[in-house]
Amino acid sequence: AVVVNNYIFDQMPEPDFAPVLAEMRRVLKPGGRLVLVNMTKAGSLLESLAEAVYRIRAEWMGGCRGVLMKPYVERAGFQRVERTIVTQMTFPSEVIRAFRPAV
User: Fold this and answer.
1) C-alpha angle with apex 99: 94 to 102, nearest 5 degrees?
2) How many angstroms separate the Cα of 62 from the Cα of each of 15, 27, 34, 53?
3) What is the pLDDT of residues 20-73, one digit of tens each?
4) Residues with Cβ < 8 Å from 86, sequence gap 6 or more?
5) 61 or 98, which is more confident
6) 52 versus 13: which is more confidently predicted?
7) Would you say 30 and 102 are in contact if contact means Cβ atoms under 8 Å apart?
8) DSSP assignment letter at 66
9) Mapping DSSP to helix (H, G, I), strand (E, B) and coil, where does residue 68 land?
10) DSSP letters of the chain?
């Protein structure tokens, strides 16, 4: 089983992260996989362009801001949490892969 969520956390209020992740964990079978994709914080000067655009006109970024989800996913009780960065047109996204504990 897998739960996939694309570009939602970068638009939702931070206080909602924990309850949403808890629900994702609840619906996954033991050993099930979670995959999240979100805009993320810049890793380079060029990638900082996305953050600058968001600060100037958030609607130009579709309301998306950079988030760092790995700590939230770990706190939600997922295991083997991996984070990969993908940059498209200078805009960085993170791909988070994690698993619900098998037991």
Assistant:
1) 175
2) 20, 29, 24, 11
3) 999 999 999 999 999 999 988 766 666 566 677 767 776 766 667 789 999 999
4) 92, 93, 94, 95
5) 98
6) 13
7) yes
8) -
9) coil
10) -EEEEES-TTTS-GGGHHHHHHHHHHHSPTT-EEEEEEE---SSTTTHHHHHHHHH-GGGGTT------HHHHHHTT-EEEEEEEEEETTEEEEEEEEE----
Cβ atoms of residues 65 and 54 within 8 Å: yes
CB atoms within 10 A of CB 98: 26
Indicate the pTM of the whole model. Answer: 0.82
CA max distance for the chain: 46
Q: Which residue type, as a one-letter code, is found at position 88?
A: Q
State how far the Cα of 35 lies from the Cα of 78, in Å rounded to an integer. 11
- Only one residue has tokens 């958030």, namely 58
For residues 50 and 91, the answer to whether their CB atoms sit within 8 Å is: yes
In degrees and rounded to multiples of 5, residue 96 shows phi and psi of -105, 130
User: Which pLDDT score is estimated for 40?
Assistant: 87
Which residue type, as a one-letter code, is found at position 42?
Answer: A
